[in-house]
Amino acid sequence: xxxxxxxxxxxxxxxxxxxxxxxxxxxxxxxxxxxxxxxxxxxxxxxxxxxxxxxxxxxxxxxxxxxxxxxxxxxxxxxxxxxxxxxxxxxxxxxxxxxxxxxxxxxxxxxxxxxxxxxxxxxxxxxxxxxxxxxxxxxxxxxxxxxxxxxxxxxxxxxxxxxxxxxxxxxxxxxxxxxxxxxxxxxxxxxxxxxxxxxxxxxxxxxxxxxxxxxxxxxxxxxxxxxxxxxxxxxxxxxxxxxxxxxxxxxxxxxxxxxxxxxxxxxxxxxxxxxxxxxxxxxxxxxxxxxxxxxxxxxxxxxxxxxxxxxxxxxxxxxxxxxxxxxxxxxxxxxxxxxxxxxxxxxxxxxxxxxxxxxxxxxxxxxxxxxxxxxxxxxxxxxxx
Length: 385
Ligand SMILES: *Cc1c(COP(=O)(O)O)cnc(C)c1O
Known about the structure:
By secondary structure, the protein is an alpha/beta fold. Helix content is 35%, strand content 15%. The strands form 2 sheets. Strands 1-7-6-5-4-2-3 form a 7-stranded mixed β-sheet, with helices on both faces. Strands 8-9-12-11-10 form a 5-stranded mixed β-sheet, with helices on one face.
């Protein structure tokens, strides 16, 4: 496909996917090889060893760059592997400003792996961007923003973060996993790096674990590509193929995730068993206007707090679903229900998670693309338990 500025759905299907020159195969072959034969030392067709470059992975990277309107993309063997490469841009003494509601694994990596190595993390309420500037000092090097946040669906103003980052020459990295490139493109809003857990909406079928980084700056790309190859958290060709296949329907799936998400959020909003609901599409969500400004729609992630429910009652409801499955992860075609306090966010100390609302009676829904009437009926029967 040429570099012409095609629309999202066209890029999802075609970007990076050239017919195979040797056979004309329309699908990118799975180059299941670790090495490439050289004619004479150093003389090869651009591929030497598959940790550095693999043609299947490269096709996927081109596709992801196109979806985020970025110049470069790099795929990693997991979302955490991609974040690890970003933080490795820093050195001891450097400081990072990040949110107080993060994916549990991100919080764990920052506090348990990189803090002991001397990198300083400030976990601040970023829903009001003016809080961020208060933590900037001479050692600050990076802002790490996740929006919408997992699981309380806080919305962080990416443009406002970018303004602070530019002013103080900081790298702004945005975890765009919950929105997917279909709903939000942080580079266009001034971010330097977009990170995805490709495992979620991009893969979309709960069959691959993968991460990705997308960026525009040449020297930032070179530094991260060096870490990518040197540290080696690179994915295999089979997984790259599966993700390319998954992305071909990303726009269709996202439309249905958003449609089902809205119907379910509206159903739950007035349900007597629900004390609180987090979904950025409601006009009374504290940052609804920012969500409207920076996202194309509001997605299929919804969190609910159950009314008068202790842990036992919460577990009973969480285990009573028939169409929703009780599982970690999100963004797949099948609807999932998750209990953050004991599952995805168990690594965050109780006082800290409760401060941002991750209480024992909170459940997180990843609304899939099944028939929404069946999903609503399933919620109704489970909440009745
Ligand atoms: C799942 C997730 C990650 C981690 O990605 P993996 O692919 O599981 O390593 C990071 N950020 C967010 C928001 C996630 O949901």
